[in-house]
Every structure is written in structure tokens, then in C-alpha cells.
Specification:
With 403 residues, the chain is α/β, with parallel strands linked by helices. The protein has helices at 19-28, 48-54, 65-77, 79-92, 96-119, 131-143, 154-158, 162-168, 177-184, 230-242, 258-267, 282-290, 314-321, 334-338, 351-363, 365-382, 385-397, and strands at residues 2-7, 32-37, 123-127, 147-151, 171-174, 195-197, 217-221, 248-252, 274-278, 296-299, 326-329, 344-346. The longest helix is centred in the N-terminal third of the chain and has 24 residues, at 96-119. The radius of gyration is 22 Å and the shape is elongated.
Length: 403
């Protein structure tokens, strides 16, 4: 089976490292995969995983004269198809901004469709219910190859042609129960059967974390964005330092809030305990977990004022897969992952509750060990990458009910 993946940027950029293991596992299980990033960046993501995926990546610019001319020629061959696409985009995008975003990807969607048709792919799968799935929808119409997409979190709330996309696809995958319910609320009842919950998967670490408890090291992994709640983590550290708790934090990730967070750390006198490590290769993060360099992973996520929230963060799953205990908040799909003792949940935007949870793990190695074991078992049972990919393949191969 030959599968085409349409991504936002993978294997380029830093925002979709969670897609890399899925592509690699598909290849490992014997399937031919080609990746078509919608907006390829100039540089690959860091790490060996991105290098491996780049070997099966087809780099086509989103906007270029050659793409536009080729798309124009293809549209002349199928004028009825172009009329349908334009009608759907203009009528079902939902806002002028989304109309414009979708119009921009039409030429590339046609070019990808021609490439898929020429290479005789069997299935198209897109990550994100936003413009990557718009491109996949167009490519599927042109190539007459069945397609599907994965919806994550904010892209469901965006509501970009969701009914049209689900109706024409074989299935729509959500990564958690909350996402499935949010998607169904935007669909007529007769399309609900097409919505399937398949978590993002992670590799189980062969070695289990045995952190050096002589020095308590906290890690936080995620882009420096409002939804990640890093300011509340710094607030918790300020409380802990006031209690004379001995710790350090490795804060991995970059983003628009970096300068603000660094200034906040300086004002709170936390520079000696918080290291802003920037972007680090995905496989290097996994190595830190498996070698015991991290005592606990903390993700202080919030729901933003405009309603953005987490799905089920892969950063939590990856730490849990190595037996690292995790602390996070009761937002988005996180309780689905950390329930029944698989991690510690605290209310969002509560610095004191977060500080108390960290201090509890710091002072009680037995609780750390117990939570680490339960977390790994939860990931092994529900989020192992090999079983996740097998579920996807079953849906790819299923005749389905698409139009």
C-alpha cells in the first residue's frame, strides 16, 4: 500500500515532530510513504527522525510561478472539478479569512493531486483539519484517490469546511474524546460514524528512567506559546524557591513568549534555576528521559481566552513512555491521559497547586516511582506507536463510505 501524507511543514520546522514517528512506523511496517509538506521551511527539523522522513519527502513550494502555471493547466483539464472546489471553498469556508486561506492552497492541492495520481498512491492522509486537509481534499478529488485526515485541537474549533471534508473522506481521526465530541457538534448526525478516535502514538523506551535523585531536575517541553502556561510554571518555581526547595528546570522550546518569560524569570530571581534551552532535536529529548537526566516532566497548560486548549500532548506521552513521572493540568484532553494515577493533575493557572505537586514528587521517591510505572503502563496500553499505526492502516484499507 502506498500512502501520501500531507502535513503543514513536517519534516521541516519545529511544530509537528509528533508526525515523524508515525511516518517512520508506517515505513517500518512495510508501507511506502511520501510526505508532502504544505509550507516547507528552509531547514529540516532537528534530529535523525527528520532526516529519515526527508528521504521520502516531496518538496513543492506553496506559492511559485511554476506551481501556478502547472495548476492552471491541470484545471483546464478538469473544469467541473475546479468549479466544485471553488463553490465549496466560497460557500463552506465560514469566513473571509478562511476563504482566502483555502484559495491560496488550491494550486498546490492540484499539483499534489497530479503527483499522487502519477505515482499511483492508494490513500491520502492529512494532518490538521485546516488548510493541509483542504489541500488533501483537492488532491483527492483530482486524483480520485480516497483520503482521510487527523484533526488535532485548534483546527477543530476553526471549523474550516469540516462538513464538506468529512463527507468526502473515508474517515476523520481525532486524537482524543473531547476532540471527537467537538467535531461531531459541527457535523450532521449521519456523519458521526466517520469520526474515529485514534491517539497519537509514541515509541516505548527500551530503557526505563532512573533519575539521579541527588539533584531534582524538572523538564518542560513545548513551544513558548500562551496555551502552554509557562508563566504559571515560573510562578510555581518562585513559590518553591521561597520554601528553600533545591531544584533546577530545563525549559525546552522556542516561541513568541521567550523574551517575556526570560524577563519574568529574571524579575522573579529564577535565572539560577531555570535554563532556557531553546529547540532541541526530538531524539535528544527522548535520550534525556531514558538516561535518567529528568526527574519529572511538567506541562502547565491552560485554556486561552480565545478558547485554545491542548489535545493530548505528545510531550507528556513520551516522558511517560520512559517511566518519567509527569504533572499537568485539567485542560483539554490531558485528563484522558493522566487519569487513574498515570500522572498528577492540578487546576490550570494555579501556581501554588503546581508548586505543591512538584514538591510532593521531589520529597517522595516512592511516589515518583509509582507514578512513573503507571504512566508507562498507560502509554504501553493505549498509545504505543505500533498499535496506533495498525489502527490507522485498518481504516486506510477499509472500503469506507466516502463520496
Amino acid at each position: 500500500m502506498k500512502i501520501a501524507y500531507i502535513t503543514a511543514q513536517t519534516p521541516y520546522g519545529t511544530g509537528e515532530t509528533f508526525v515523524l514517528p508515525e511516518v517512520i512506523e508506517l515505513q517500518k511496517q512495510g508501507y511506502e510513504v511520501a510526505v508532502f509538506p504544505l509550507r516547507p521551511d528552509k531547514k529540516l527539523a532537528q534530529g535523525q527522525e527528520a532526516i529519515k522522513v526527508s528521504e521520502c519527502t516531496v518538496r513543492i513550494p506553496l506559492l511559485s510561478f511554476r506551481v501556478f502555471v502547472k495548476a492552471l493547466k491541470l484545471s483546464l483539464l478538469k473544469p467541473k472539478l475546479i468549479c466544485k472546489v471553488l463553490f465549496d471553498v466560497l460557500r463552506h469556508s465560514g469566513s473571509g479569512k478562511k476563504v482566502l486561506k483555502n484559495l491560496v492552497v488550491i494550486p498546490k492541492g492540484l499539483v499534489i493531486g497530479e503527483e499522487i495520481k502519477k505515482r499511483e498512491f492508494d490513500h491520502i492522509h492529512a494532518h490538521w483539519a485546516s488548510t493541509p486537509s483542504t489541500a488533501a481534499y483537492i488532491a483527492a478529488l483530482y486524483s480520485e484517490v480516497p483520503w482521510s485526515f487527523t484533526a488535532h485541537r485548534w483546527d477543530i474549533g476553526e471549523g474550516n469546511m469540516l462538513e464538506v471534508k468529512v463527507k468526502s473522506s473515508k474517515f476523520a481521526r481525532t486524537i482524543n474524546l473531547r476532540g471527537a465530541n467537538e467535531l461531531k457538534r459541527q457535523l450532521p448526525n449521519e456523519l458521526w460514524d466517520k469520526v474515529h478516535i485514534i491517539h497519537m502514538g509514541v515509541n516505548l523506551s527500551e530503557s526505563i528512567s532512573n533519575a539521579n535523585q541527588d539533584f531534582f531536575t524538572i523538564a518542560s517541553v513545548g513551544n513558548l506559546l500562551p496555551v502552554k502556561g509557562h508563566e504559571f510554571l515560573l510562578g510555581a518555581f518562585f513559590i518553591l524557591k521561597g520554601r528553600n526547595v533545591n531544584f533546577r528546570c530545563l525549559l525546552f522550546g522556542n516561541g513568541p513568549l521567550r523574551d517575556k518569560l526570560q524577563q519574568m524569570a529574571k524579575e522573579l530571581n529564577l535565572i539560577d534555576v531555570v535554563n532556557f534551552c531553546g529547540s532541541v532535536a526530538h531524539d535528544e529529548i527522548l535520550k534525556l528521559y531514558s538516561t535518567g537526566a529528568v526527574s519529572v516532566l511538567v506541562l502547565p497548560s491552560i485554556e486561552t481566552k480565545d478558547g485554545e486548549k491542548e489535545g493530548i500532548p505528545v510531550s507528556l506521552m513520551e516522558a511517560m513512555a520512559a517511566g518519567v513521572p509527569v504533572i499537568s493540568t485539567t485542560t483539554g484532553g490531558i485528563p484522558e491521559l493522566l487519569g487513574n494515577g498515570a500522572g498528577i493533575l492540578v487546576p490550570p493557572e494555579d501556581c501554588e497547586a503546581l508548586a505543591n505537586a512538584i514538591e510532593r514528587l521531589l520529597k517522595d521517591p516512592e511516589i515518583r516511582r509509582e507514578i512513573g510505572i503507571k504512566g508507562r503502563e498507560k502509554v504501553k496500553k493505549e498509545f504505543a506507536i505500533d498499535s496506533v499505526v495498525q489502527k490507522l492502516i485498518e481504516l486506510f484499507k477499509n472500503p469506507g463510505d466516502s463520496e
